[in-house]
Amino acid sequence: MMKQVQKRIIILALLAGEIMMKSGAEIYRVEDTITRICRACNIPYVEVFVTPTGIFLSLDKGGDDSEMFTFIKRIKGTGTDLGKISEVNQFSRDFVSTDLSIEDGMKRLKQIAQSKPYYLWLRILGAAFACAFFCLMFKGTIKDFPCAFVIGAASYLLSVSFEQFETNYFIKGFCCTAFAAFLALICAATGLGDNSGPITIGALMLFVPGVAITNAIRDFLASDMLSGLARAAEAFFVAISLATGAGVVMRLWVLLGGNII
Amino acid sequence: MTYFLQFIFGFVSTVGFAILFHVPKRNIFMSSLVGGVGWVVFAYCRNDYGGALLGCFLASCVVGLLAGIFSRVYKETATVYTIPGIIPLVPGAGMYYTTLYLINGELSKAATTGTQTLLMAGSISVGLLVVGSFFKMHYTLTGKFKRIIKKT
Fold first, then answer.
1. With contact defined as beta carbons under 8 Å apart, do B99 and B31 qualify?
2. Which of A43, A47, A231, B2 could bond A38 through an S-S bridge, CB–CB 3.0 to 4.6 Å?
3. Which residues cross the membrane (chain A) (predicted)?
């Protein structure tokens, strides 16, 4: 009987941790949430080790006849979904302070896991606005603005369709920035926009690994060296993929006789 | 006036990112405000005071500070405000120019820009971290004071 309860607690805590990790939370926050959930179920011994690719959790109820449980959860695929992080945080606060049962908690967590991001058209509009205004922020002109608006929407749509095919992040970053840089060069060459530079920067900003960089250094300084290294490598390779994507297209453009305005 | 325009630009682009990152609806305005203010601080430092590197540091300090205050006021995690807020500061332009110099074969220029880009990325996280640890110290101190007051 006791074992069943412990098993359910482990599954609940691991699900909460998995949702947070997949949404791009920091390591210490995930470890803290899992520990709090287990402590709230009267488990005195909890040890948890979280890396960006897996969660290791072991717990012991204490007493003579209790066994120690250890579970490993593999995490695949990361993204950024701040809504889920905020909801799981709220959930763990509720779970600790009120006497929510494990079944109800499980139901609520499953609801959170299935919650969808904003509608596709709204996200495309968001990407287009972000790209266009970044273009203005980096000294783009009024003529560049509509070009960046369209290119931002197009390259975000391309990245969404790449996610459907489940390609890896390198190919995705490479193709999206190559596409955006190509369109920006065409815009500048046909006279629709003044400079291809600000437009390309605007499109690059949509894919830069800002979240990974900050999380990596925070993990390092919180002495989670393993996760810090993993995240730093992720940020580095994403940056490399973006730079090569834009770079290859610009180089080919120059080689084929165009000039970069 | 130019800085007011810069604020609008930073604000709107952060709104875009807040939508992409699925920030809860009630927090979109606040997190965009954080992003706009951070960008204005960065733009001011870059143009008139101290250069881009200091600008990144100060701007991310401001972002961290505002995020800490808002997370306290609205009972949210600070991440909801910091991640969209720092996105305008992330040096995408530095990456672009590094690539451009590499393509043209200007290696020394590429090395200079690349190093500055890396340092900017580092100073963003250091700024956030400094403010974050101050907030942590503040919470532990106030917690201790409350416990002492309760005991006496």
1. no
2. A43
3. 118-138, 169-192, 199-217, 237-256
Look at residues B140, B132, B10, B23 and name the one whose alpha carbon lies nearest to residue A81: B23
CB contact under 8 A, B87 and A210: yes
**Contacts for A250 with CB less than 8 Å, ≥ 6 apart:** A181, A185, A260, B99, B100, B103
What's the average model confidence in pLDDT over A35-45?
A: 86
Domain assignment of residue B62, given as a range:
1-150
**What CA–CA distance (Å, rounded) separates A139 from A148?**
13
How do the domains of chain A map onto residue ranges?
A: 4-114, 120-256
Of all residues in chain A, the percent with pLDDT exceeding 90 is 15
pTM above 0.95, yes or no: no
Q: How far is CA B104 from CA A49, B96, B98, in A?
A: 46, 12, 10
Burial B62-83 (b: 16+ CB within 10 A, else e): bbbbbbbebbeeeebbbbbbbb
B90: three-class secondary structure by DSSP: coil
Share of chain B above pLDDT 90, in %: 25
Count of domains for chain B: 1
Q: Is some CB atom of chain B closer than 8 A to the CB atom of A125? A: yes
Q: What is the 3-state secondary structure (H, E, C) of B19-55?
A: HHCCCCHHHHHHHHHHHHHHHHHHHHHHHHCCHHHHH
Helix, strand or coil, per DSSP, at residue A43: coil
Contact: B86, A214; criterion CB under 8 Å: yes
pLDDT band at A1 (very low <50, low <70, confident <90, very high): low
Q: What percentage of chain A reaches a pLDDT higher than 70? A: 99
pLDDT of residue A105 exceeding 70, the answer is yes
A151 part of contact set with chain B, CB < 8 Å: no
A74: β partners: A54
Q: Which residues of B touch A218 (CB under 8 A)?
A: 125, 128-129, 132
Please give the structure tokens belonging to residue A216: 């990596």
Predicted confidence band of residue B32 (pLDDT cuts 50, 70, 90)? very high
Residues from chain B contacting residue A133 (CB–CB below 8 Å): 9-10, 12-13, 16
Count of pairs with CB atoms under 8 A, one residue in A, one in B? 144
From the list A86, A72, A76, A71, the residue with the least C-alpha distance to A22 is: A76
Strands (E), A45-88: 45-51, 54-60, 68-74
pLDDT over threshold 80, residue B53: yes
Alpha-carbon distance of B66 to B123, in angstroms, equals 18
